Each structure stands twice: as C-alpha cells, then as structure tokens.
C-alpha cells in the first residue's frame, strides 16, 4: 500500500490515510455497464460488500480488498481516498459504510477536493457508534483533474473516530447513464401490447390494419397554477394541452384561505378546482400547514397554545371537509426539517397529530411530507436524506399515516449522480416519491436553465421509484417564482421548449401496422389510455384500452 501525506489548503487539518487509486475508466466500468440501485437506510451490524467491487477505489496500487477498514480521528486526521486523472462530464457514483467512536450519532459529510482547489459535498450520512451506516452519493466534474481527494468530516467538527469500509467510486460515461435511464423507462414507463384480431368464428384475421393512438398518459407530469389562469382561455388551453396534473401555488395556503380569523375565502380555489376537474386533471393539495413562521397568518402568530390548537383543528376540518375526495395528495405540514413554528408551540407531536386528523378528515388522500434541499444538494445540514428518513420514521412511529415523499426540487446547478443516489436511499422506504416543485434558479441564463431542467426531468422521470413530477412554474404577468416555461403571451422560453420536447418523447404518438400470420399486431407503448382502430375488408371497429404498469405483455382481443 502506498501512503501519502497531502495538505488540503483551507480545511484546517491534514489528511493522512491516502489510498493510491488508478482511474482508467474503461477498466473500471462494470462488464455489463449497469448502474446498481442498491441502497440502505437501516443501520447494520456489519458493512455490506463494496458496490462494483470498489470500482476505481482499490486499497493499494496493485488492487486489494475494497471492503477493508480505514480508521482515523477527525479534526486531525480523516480517512480518505486519493484518485487520479478524473474525467470531465463522467458520472461518478460514490458509496461506502461508516461507523463512529467518540459520539453516539453524528452527521458525516463525504467531500471531494479536486486538485487541492477546495472541497464540495458529494454525500452525507447520519452515522452511529453501534452500527454501520450506508453512504451513497456522487459527482460530475466541470474539468479534468490530476489528483482528487475524497475525505470525511463530521458536521459540528467535534473530535471523533470515523471508520470507513467498503468504499466504491464507479465511473459511468454519459452514454451509459442515458442507457440506464432508457432501460428504466422501458421497464417502468412502457409496456408491450399485442392486438389479436379474429372473425366471429374465431378464425385469425391476417392483414388487418391496426392503429393505436394514446389519448391519456399514466405518469403524472404537471405544473403549479395560480389564480391568473382563471378567465384566461388561452392559458387554460395551453395548460391542458400539456399537463395531466396541477397544484395551486398559493391559493390553498392558510394565509390565503383565512387571512383574518374566521374570514374564510374559498372562492378562488373553488374556481381553480372546477377548472382542473372539468379537464380531468389530477390535483395536489398544497398545503395545510407551513412550519415557516413567515408563511403563517399574522393573526395565528399571537395565539395562545390553547387557542392555536383550536385554530389548527378548525383549519384542518374546514379545509378537508370542504374538499374531501377532491385532492389526490395533501402536503400536511410543509418544510418541517427547516422550521418549527407549530411544533415549538404545540409540542413535538404536533405534526403527527396534524397527519392523524387529516387522515380522518379525508382518508382517500395520500398524505405527504414536503421538503427542500433534500434532493437539490447535500450541503444543507437540516435536510439531508437521512434526516428526512428519520423524521418520516418518527412521524409514523407516533401514529401518523404518512404515505408519500415530497421533494420540492428547487435546483441550482444539479448534481445528477447525487440526485440518483438520494432517490435510491429514499426508495428503500417503499413509498411513492414525487417531485413537487421543480424549477431551476433564475441566476442562470435561459439556455442554462433549460439545459439543467432537462437533466433533472430526465433523471426524475427515469428513476424507478419516482411516481410523479410537478413543475413550479405558475405564470404571472410579472413572471414566475424562479423559472417560467413561457412569457405572458404564452410564447415558449427555452425551458418551455425542453418540456414540450420531453412530453412528446414520453408518449406514444401513434403505432400502426398489419396483423401477421397469427392475426396479431404488437407494439410497445407508454403507459396510459388508448384508442384502437382495426380495419379489414371495408369494415372498421374502434375500441379503447389501457396500458397499466406490469411486466407481462398486455393482450387485447378484437372481433371483426
């Protein structure tokens, strides 16, 4: 094993355990080129073997055991990996297992320092002293590097011993990453169907003309809307031509529906609900409560604990009784990881009580946590993936009926390998995952916004655990929150071009052909609703069918 002493400028400590690693991409790619979606959120007695047999992380220049242990003290020394000659645009996925001494639990960050130019977060984990915790993340470089260091820090900088095992750094080319996405789309968003055509006697009809047209999509892709859509026929048509899901930007929030105590205002959300209902658009309820004090109605802030408890119960009942069965989802208590207005005043079980009361008021709605900076970055210590998982488990242990994972998705520059790794960890919970408020920061120019949006949407749509995608692009005369798809005249911006192109890509425009010698015609289509037209000898029949999720071929029988 080769040892190196390597000073990282500006980090305040010396990294000692250096592991000499080659990084020849062709030699490190798995034989089949496939990404490993494995992840763990439970703490384990022993670490699992390294993914990809360690990838390009090898203990020693001649290879060795990637599952070996490396231990050292933080604050003075950190366990670390040195890797050489990393490539620009390559997708690197990183994983390992971590255990502590000196503290029962701590937030540990894995950081990458390329060419000694400063460090950035590539993964986080809430590690413990009594078991091994799984780290999964990744990164993409903007430029090639000669020498890079992956090291570990505890968030509060207190001295403790960190032990790292089963380290893995696996590179994928952009083509391979796209291949993984397309493979998941083929398996999860599409299905093979066979149309069987026969005459009344059951004889096969050979040479019949078959045409299928998709009329509705199964996968929900939608956008926020605001009251600006009311009475705007052009905007309404633009919206329903594209989206099958909606969420109200502000109109259901408490400060909108009850700006003064007892003064309920539901006329605007009622009209918006009538619009989406008339066009068969599913709609999310956002939100019942928001832990951010700045987003709390003024009159609520000064209530006593008893009056506040009565007010929140009235809020749930008035909102969910009025709209019982109307909203598919409810974000029950928004951004609980960053704010605590209600829990600070009503106790730590306040959120669990909100969920229980909401479940009783509308048992058919799926109840969600909703949070920012879980998927967008790993630099926010309040909303790491493990913190999200821990809060969700705590709520369920307290009796909350919590059935959905909401990820806002307010991105700056996206880290796509990290995004996939976080989704992998959240997927272990077995709950539907929704992107609820996707946009790209307006600090970027229009073309850059569009490029980053496409990266995010492709990764979200293709991940097997994601159940729906919502854009935070409600249109106003003055613009949008961070990102619009069109201008006020509904002329596409570059982001709108991306969305239109992907929406067309992710649907079956039309499939047509003739039945074969067995009287059958097969095609692969995106999940959703279809119209089927079959013609033979001047006779035509038309019917409808659906492609729902499933691994088996869907068989449709038609009698001419």
TrEMBL record:
Superkingdom of origin: Eukaryota
Catalytic residue positions: 437 (nucleophile)
Listed GO MF terms: endo-1,4-beta-xylanase activity
Signal peptide from the UniProt entry: 1-28
SUPFAM superfamilies on file: (Trans)glycosidases, Carboxypeptidase regulatory domain-like
Domain named GH10: residues: 206-502
Sorted UniProt keywords: Carbohydrate metabolism, Glycosidase, Hydrolase, Polysaccharide degradation, Signal
Pfam families: Glyco_hydro_10
Protein's GO biological process: polysaccharide catabolic process
Keyword Glycosyltransferase attached: no
Similarity comment text for this entry: Belongs to the glycosyl hydrolase 10 (cellulase F) family.
Identification of the protein by name: Glycosyl hydrolase family 10 protein
Gene source species: Zea mays
Gene this protein is translated from: LOC100272986
